[in-house]
Amino acid sequence: MHRIAFMKKDLQKMREMNIAKLALRDANNDAEKDLLMTWALPCETMLLSNMYDTINRTIIILPDAREKQFNPSGNFQEFIDPFFVIPIKKMNTGYFTMDTTEPYTLSSWENFDR
Question: Is the dihedral of CA 13, 57, 50, 31 positive or negative?
């Protein structure tokens, strides 16, 4: 599946499920095999959702070790990318309106609408 088609499909599923921030566990590294360079996904999905939605939605792929490092289920007011955890209040609200009321929803690459 084309990368943009994948992102649009998953962002639509997130919209339907009322999810703004999604962290997908990827124990077998399948996401990297399917998408290549998953490190860009959080920003790509945030920018793409900005074109179609009233809030920004974001997806991050988490290998097992990263989940413990970032604790996505405890992050209500932070944007997680593979390199940094950024407080949402420090983001440019002229471009990005991220949800600050809900934590990241945890699922797995294999189980999220594959």
Answer: negative
- Compute CA 48 distance to the chain's CA centroid, rounded to the nearest angstrom: 12
What single-letter amino acid sits at 44? E
Instruction: Give the residue ranges of DSSP H helices in the chain.
Output: 3-17, 30-35, 41-52, 64-70
The whole-model pTM stands at: 0.87
E-state strands within 20-113: 21-25, 58-62, 78-80, 85-87, 105-108
For residues 79 and 55, the answer to whether their CB atoms sit within 8 Å is no
Would you write out the chain's pLDDT as a tens digit for each of its 114 residues? 688 999 999 999 999 999 999 998 887 888 888 888 889 999 999 999 999 888 899 999 887 656 666 666 677 888 888 888 889 989 988 888 888 888 889 888 888 866
Q: For residue 98, what are its two tokens?
A: 């991220």
- Residue 88 CA, chain-centre distance (Å), reads 14
